Amino acid sequence: MRRKVLLEHINVPDINKFDVYRSKGGYAAVEKALKTLTPEEIVEEVKKSGLRGRGGAGFPTGMKWSFLAKPEGVPRYLVCNADESEPGTFKDRFLMTKLPHLLIEGMIIGSFALGAKVSYIYVRGEMMPQIRILEKAIAEAKNAGFLGKNILGTGYDLELYVQPGGGAYICGEETALIESLEGKRGNPRIKPPFPAIAGLWGCPTVVNNVESIAAVVPIIRDGGEEYAKIGIGRSTGTKLISASGNLVKPGIYEIELGVPVEEFIYSDEYCGGIANGKRLKAVVAGGSSVPILPANLITKTINQEARLMSYESLSDGGFATGSMMGSGGFIAFDEDQCIVRNTWNFSRFYHHESCGQCSPCREGTGWMEKVLHRLEYGHGKLSDIDLLVDVSKKIEGNTICPLGDAAAWPVASAIRHFRDEFEWHVKEPRTCLERNYGLAHYADPLPKPEPALVG
Amino acid sequence: MLKIEETVVVHQFKPELYQQFIDIVSRYPAEQPKGALLPILHVVQAEFGWLSVDAMDKVAEYLNIQPIEVYEVASFYTMYFLRPQGKYMLEVCRTGPCCLVGAEKIMKYIEQKLGVKEGDVTPDGLFSWRGVECLAACGFAPVLQIGPEYTFYENLTPESVDQLISDLTVKVNN
User: Fold this and answer.
1) Is the pLDDT of residue A455 over 70?
2) Which residues in B lie closer than 8 A to residue A242 (C-beta atoms)?
3) Measured between CB atoms, which of A88, A180, A251 is closest to B97?
4) Per-residue confidence (pLDDT) for residue B6, from 0 to 100
5) Which residue in the set A84, A87, A159 is minimally distant from B95, CB to CB?
6) pLDDT (average), residues B65-73
7) ipTM surpassing 0.90
8) Cβ contacts (< 8 Å) between A252 and chain B: which residues?
9) Distance of alpha carbon A402 from its chain centroid, rounded?
10) Which of A23, A135, A205, A256 maximizes the CB count within 10 A of its CB?
11) How far off is chain A from B51, nearest CA to CA, in Å?
12) Which residues of A touch B140 (CB under 8 A)?
């Protein structure tokens, strides 16, 4: 069994209650932070830990904190991004349900480090049960003197509120989230200025994912250097992986970064292999936006090395033969799944969720959905495949926020790795309605890499 | 399909509802009450089942903003209903990971079982259903949720859907 730092006490009964959480060493990190550390020292510990944003972008959290502007007399805000909506990702819902106090503890430490007197947890509106759980936990923490005025007699005041969203994937983008928190449509803002300079109500703001904020607790409790010992290379610490799709044991797993992908899929400690004795066809490793990889490229890199669950290893090979860690939404496809159908499904999702501000995304996502629909239902042309690649290239990089890229990558990568399955849909328009393409060659051993040229 | 006249109704706000508004508005800086808009729309919808133009106008008046500022928000976010729904709105996740384990079959089954198309209301006014995008419960797929509490039903099968619908019908009739 490997180390768990977030889910260490997950099986303790009633760990969602303050007294039980406290008896297991909870809120000790808040005591340490507020009584013995300065805000600058806390930021320094988070920097030392090497913690990278767990929401998807992977930007170093300590660095993000150090960018916060601190003009005199202007309030600063810490906002927790709990708008978890990336298909394949469900770790934050789990964390808030089971360990609400871990998140609250992290919010207190983070708010103190950033000098925020009011902080918000923006939870996606559909998670009403989690909103109730958090509100109850906040009341308990306040009752025990960990929130409100003069926390632990240190003179530090903090109010923490839970804000429900309204059902919009785009609000996971930090500036759209800020707009939504201000009571507006979730339209992302043009950057710069970044939220660290002008965020919520024009004030300096840091937006962090639930898991990033929760990870601050063990970092402060044990020290940043101790946290950095877990993991591999620049992928320090542990990561919550949401495993879904055709697996024997889908669910949430806390892994030490660096576990081999093959072990994660097949070992009994994790997913236990592919369900119903089927074979693995493909994996989307980090939530629906990241490139899909065929079975042979997810377990091994193009250089025949074992691929690991780490930021670097998952992106090894770039987009040509690699993918990304993203939010850790690990979706496994068995041999009976149709890649064209799944790509169409994801495209419909992005079309539905595009906020409509930028033409390439608003129009392009709709075109991709339509073209993929006709390919899936046997009305496509061979030229449609290149048309999709063309449209995806025209969206990528041409929008205010990364939703455009997130919509383009799944389509481009599916065609890159599964082009013959797309072509089969055109050449066999009737057969493709009756059965799927199957595993084909997608799990075949990779060819030996060409020897490197010398000189 | 509803005619537009049928959505023109008057919704009276009780004092208890305004009491909730006061609590919500207290979470924001005094000069930024508009932050309260999304949470207020949720409590109004929980009260009436949907957001009428009249209700949205009252919210605008309360927050001292223009009605269009409320309409544009209510129409942007998918959780707000701009016309009446069944008492129980079954929202089934229809995104990738759920479809890998049979969400499409569950939606077809619900359509047959209730005998109404997506978005329509059963003649007794009890049920409506629709497909929604990822509900962040992919490991327990297929899933559906029912507002206003947004209770979750996971690992759906035709049998569990039967059970759910009959439980809800019994609940209403008692």
Assistant:
1) no
2) 138-139
3) A88
4) 63
5) A87
6) 97
7) yes
8) 139
9) 13
10) A205
11) 13
12) 90, 250
- Distance to chain B for A305, nearest Cα, Å: 28
Q: Do B150 and A127 touch (CB under 8 A)?
A: yes
Q: What is the pLDDT of residue A2?
A: 77
CB A76 within 8 A of CB A200: no
User: Which chain B residue's Cα is nearest to A252?
Assistant: B139
Whole-prediction pTM? 0.95
Place of tokens 């005094």: B30
Whole-angstrom Cα distance, residue A90 to residue B134?
10
The reply to whether B68 touches chain A by the CB within 8 Å rule is no
The span from the CA of A300 to the CA of A1, in Å, is 24
pLDDT single digits (tens) A91-117: 999 999 999 999 999 999 999 999 999
User: What kind of architecture, by CATH, is found in domain A239-334?
Assistant: Roll (3.10)
Residue A62 and residue A46: Cα distance in Å, rounded? 5
Nearest Cβ partner for B100 among A127, A186, A333: A333
Q: Give the tokens for residue A208.
A: 């962090």
Domain A339-453 in CATH 3.10.290.10: no
Kindly tell me if the per-residue pLDDT of B1 is higher than 90: no
| Tokens 């619908």, located at residue | B165
Q: Do B149 and A88 touch (CB under 8 A)?
A: no
Any chain A CB within 8 A of the CB of B126?
Answer: no
Tally of CB atoms within 10 A around A443: 17
Which of B37, B79, B138 comes nearest A126 by C-beta? Answer: B79
Amino acid A353 reads E
The pLDDT of residue B5 is 60
- What does DSSP say about strands B88-93 and B127-132: parallel, antiparallel, or unpaired? parallel
Pick the residue from chain A with its C-alpha nearest to B100: A245
Angle between helical axes of A210-222 and A28-36 (0-180°, round to 10):
70
pLDDT at A123 over 80: yes
Asked if A340 contacts A425 with a C-beta cutoff of 8 angstroms, the reply is yes
Query: What amino acid is encoded at A147 in this protein?
Result: L
* Superfamily of domain A18-229 in the CATH hierarchy: NADH-ubiquinone oxidoreductase 51kDa subunit (3.40.50.11540)
Residues of chain A with CATH 1.20.1440.230: 339-453
Give the dihedral of Cα atoms A268, A270, A275, A281; nearest 10 deg.
-120
A-B contacts (CB, under 8 Å): 152
Give, for B74, the enclosing helix (H) or strand (E). helix B67-76
Residues of A in contact with B29 (CB under 8 A): 75, 118, 201
CA–CA separation, B24 and A339 (whole Å):
45
Using one digit for the tens of pLDDT, what is the confidence trace for A179-204?
Answer: 999 999 999 999 999 999 999 999 99
State the Cα–Cα distance between residues A83 and A209, nearest whole angstrom.
Answer: 9
Specify the domain boundaries for CATH 3.40.50.11540 within chain A: 18-229
In chain A, residues under CATH classification 3.10.20.600 are 239-334
| Cβ neighbours around A419 below 10 Å, total | 13
| B31, closest residue in chain A (CA to CA) | A201
